Recover the amino acids of this structure.
């Protein structure tokens, strides 16, 4: 049976798993493949623009109707519009995700490229005036949004990134999102990043504030929301509270830094509002918050919470919650503010370790499978051993040489542990000692990431003495001795015959640019069933 004879839904589900490069190839197979590939390619078209590539905006402009084209002409935006041939598809209808910042960047690039036309320069002497240029970008942005909504886009994801007070192209009027059906009524994911104070009466972003203030009234199925806010002002707090209270959120990320009383008060309001999501919230992620004066008792009311993360947070103190409540998380990340805690560890290491142990005793249980920690002591690791015996994935960051001979063997003997990632704080850990202890004790781990450079002699020791049978392995190596490292891996594979994927770090993000000698060794590895890929790719796929 050929793929074209499969039910349409099944065929579409197969194509859904292909990357963009493969989908573009599918366009050329036949019309049937093309018909199903186009909606997937256009699902998320607003990716970072490529310089001098304007095909995206050209295609979207070809979808405009006469009224929209006329509106652009009134703003002296009429570059080649009348010469466009009718589009083969209604591309706007397929768009499911809009990243506003990327959309504006594409439009900026398009207008800039068209400005190089000599006729345009001659006819529009004021083109390079910033105000005039911004008005063109705003107008074209609004028209493209209007076309997408008019075509019936079932918008599901929206990303709003505001990082500059001096240059920001406002959203179109909110009515554009609601006048056409379905508009934003089926929005499921909303990500908001704001890096300065939004003021209610500032005309530069009044449409943005209107959008944030009304989105929760027109949507009823937002399940994922991310707030990346440098300063949580009053203008932003009310919309966020409404979103939390009115939407059936299953995942929330909150990243904000507070430096005054009003902002701290607003953060507390947002955090306490999470109680409204006691029946829906499954993932709760905090970034960069100070919890010194925040009562964490609200966590006990989140009945279905499975994943809890604190990343670069600080100010944890012992609370009655930690002694009176036992949670059943599946994933936990306690990644404290590294610079802050590194300084404290020198003088208050025992106290911090005690706080960590109490938190682990409360947050960890038999249900926990995946754990990330960056305050590692014998007491904290023993707490992990006792509280979560079924853990299969562990990510740690080591800040000290102290007690490595006690800590590492305990970790290595977690008999259900299959994924292990180890990071170190630069300049304070004896890597030779760490690698040798790992080599002597690792037994059960199958996916290993050592996120630091290992010298060749230590790597050789590891290869000779390690008894674990790795399936996926990331190594960070010296770019000048890659062949020697590869030869050691080849020797490892000859003995263990377990490795399937080897991830290697790129040198300064450049392509690998293998030598002929290195390619010969890579050939040996491939003959033994080992694929070699970028370490970044493997890290994202298996430990994110």
């Amino acid at each position: 049976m050929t793929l074209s004879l499969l039910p349409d839904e099944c065929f579409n589900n197969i194509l859904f798993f292909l990357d963009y490069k493969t989908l573009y190839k599918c366009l050329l197979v036949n019309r049937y493949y093309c018909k199903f590939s186009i909606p997937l390619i256009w699902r998320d078209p607003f990716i970072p623009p490529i310089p001098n590539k304007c095909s995206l905006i050209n295609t979207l402009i070809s979808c405009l109707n006469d009224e929209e084209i006329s509106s652009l002409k009134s703003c002296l935006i009429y570059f080649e519009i009348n010469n466009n041939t009718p589009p083969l598809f209604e591309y706007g209808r397929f768009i499911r995700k809009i990243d506003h910042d990327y959309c504006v960047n594409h439009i900026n690039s398009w207008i800039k490229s068209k400005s190089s036309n000599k006729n345009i320069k001659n006819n529009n002497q004021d083109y390079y005036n910033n105000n005039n240029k911004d008005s063109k970008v705003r107008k074209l942005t609004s028209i493209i949004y209007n076309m997408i909504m008019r075509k019936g886009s079932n918008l599901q994801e929206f990303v709003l990134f505001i990082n500059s007070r001096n240059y920001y192209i406002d959203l179109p009027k909110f009515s554009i999102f609601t006048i056409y059906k379905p508009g934003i009524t089926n929005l499921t994911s909303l990500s908001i990043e704001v890096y300065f104070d939004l003021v209610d009466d500032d005309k530069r972003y009044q449409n943005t504030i209107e959008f944030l203030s009304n989105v929760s009234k027109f949507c009823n199925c937002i399940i994922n929301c991310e707030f990346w806010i440098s300063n949580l002002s009053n203008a932003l707090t009310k919309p966020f509270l409404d979103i939390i209270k009115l939407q059936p959120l299953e995942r929330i990320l909150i990243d904000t830094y507070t430096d005054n009383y009003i902002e701290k008060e607003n953060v507390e309001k947002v955090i306490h509002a999470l109680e409204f999501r006691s029946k829906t919230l499954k993932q709760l992620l905090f970034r960069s918050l100070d919890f010194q004066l925040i009562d964490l008792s609200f966590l006990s009311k989140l009945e279905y919470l499975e994943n809890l993360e604190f990343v670069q947070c600080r100010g944890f103190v012992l609370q009655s919650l930690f002694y009176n409540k036992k949670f059943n998380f599946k994933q936990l990340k306690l990644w404290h503010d590294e610079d802050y805690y590194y300084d404290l560890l020198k003088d208050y290491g025992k106290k911090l370790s005690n706080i960590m142990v109490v938190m682990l005793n409360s947050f960890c249980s038999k249900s926990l499978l995946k754990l990330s920690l960056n305050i590692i002591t014998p007491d904290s690791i023993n707490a992990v051993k006792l509280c979560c015996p079924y853990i299969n994935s562990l990510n740690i960051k080591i800040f000290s040489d102290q007690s490595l001979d006690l800590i590492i063997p305990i970790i290595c003997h977690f008999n259900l542990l299959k994924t292990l990632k180890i990071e170190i704080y630069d300049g304070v850990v004896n890597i030779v000692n760490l690698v040798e202890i790992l080599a002597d004790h690792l037994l059960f781990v199958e996916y290993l990431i050592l996120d630091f450079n290992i010298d060749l002699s230590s790597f050789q020791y590891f290869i000779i003495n390690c008894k674990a049978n790795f399936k996926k392995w990331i190594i960070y190596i010296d770019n000048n001795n890659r062949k020697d490292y590869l030869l050691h891996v080849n020797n490892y594979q000859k003995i263990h015959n377990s490795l399937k994927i080897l991830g290697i770090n790129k040198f300064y993000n450049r392509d690998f640019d293998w030598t002929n000698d290195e390619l010969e060794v890579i050939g040996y590895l491939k003959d033994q069933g080992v694929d070699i890929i970028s370490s970044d790719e493997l890290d994202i796929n298996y430990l994110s």
Remarks:
- Residues 1-42 form one domain.
- The chain has 22 helices and 15 strands.
